[in-house]
Sequence to fold (148 residues):
Amino acid sequence: MLSFGLVTQAAEAGAIEPYVLRYLDAKEPVSVLVNSQGEMQLFSAEDLSAGQQLFSENCLNCHVGGATLPDPSVPLSLEALKGAVPPRDTLEELVAFIRQPMSYDGSKEAYLCRQVPESWLSQPEVENLAAFVLRAAEKAPGWGTRSF
Fold:
């Protein structure tokens, strides 16, 4: 599957995407912030590749390179994720958003992002997806820019 240069090969179970190795610097397991208490969780290159595949299949139409096409003022940068209400810059917070999307100010449901119940993606799958987004926001050059 080729999608805007983000996915360079079909993601088979356990396959590692070159993007993950090169731009997310995940040759070894990487730590992702789990919550505001500072707990961390390790994610392997395989986990992040699985998250990248889920992102490509489900999020890429609106979030090319971490931008947000429907509202470019709210990208998927760490700064923007942290500024959301509630913040979305930890694994737990981003998973909660994926499960129940809300507007950036938290005042209402977000209808441009669809809910992702466990019947659709399991908890480990959603965590891999969130870890991919957070690691990309931290490491990938150009990720989450406000202009594209």
In short: Residues 18-139 form a domain with the Cytochrome Bc1 Complex; Chain D, domain 2 fold (CATH 1.10.760.10). The longest strand covers residues 30-33. The chain has a mean pLDDT of 89.
